[in-house]
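Annex B. Sample input.
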Amino acid sequence: MTTISEAITTIKKAESDADKLIEDTKAKSSEMILEAKSKSIETIEKAKEEANSDAEKITFEAETNAKKEAYQINNQTNEKVEITKTSAAKMVDEAAEVIVKSIL
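Annex B, continued. Sample output.
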């Protein structure tokens, strides 16, 4: 009978060990799932930060380029305005001469 008793004790011990192993495995898998979720959230946040940083850089570069272009356009326009003023001033002088000549 000792062998049957020993066998039963061994079986109960194996069942207990198996139950403990199942509990440990469940706890470990829950821990792994939480860690994976945490890492995925961290990765997503890091990607968002990088995307925002890149977007800010692109926006800054676009604004800088637009300002440079606007400055160039402004300079070109000012040059054309000065040329037009000079040309108009010459025409005023010529018109004044024609008026003076026609009066005289």
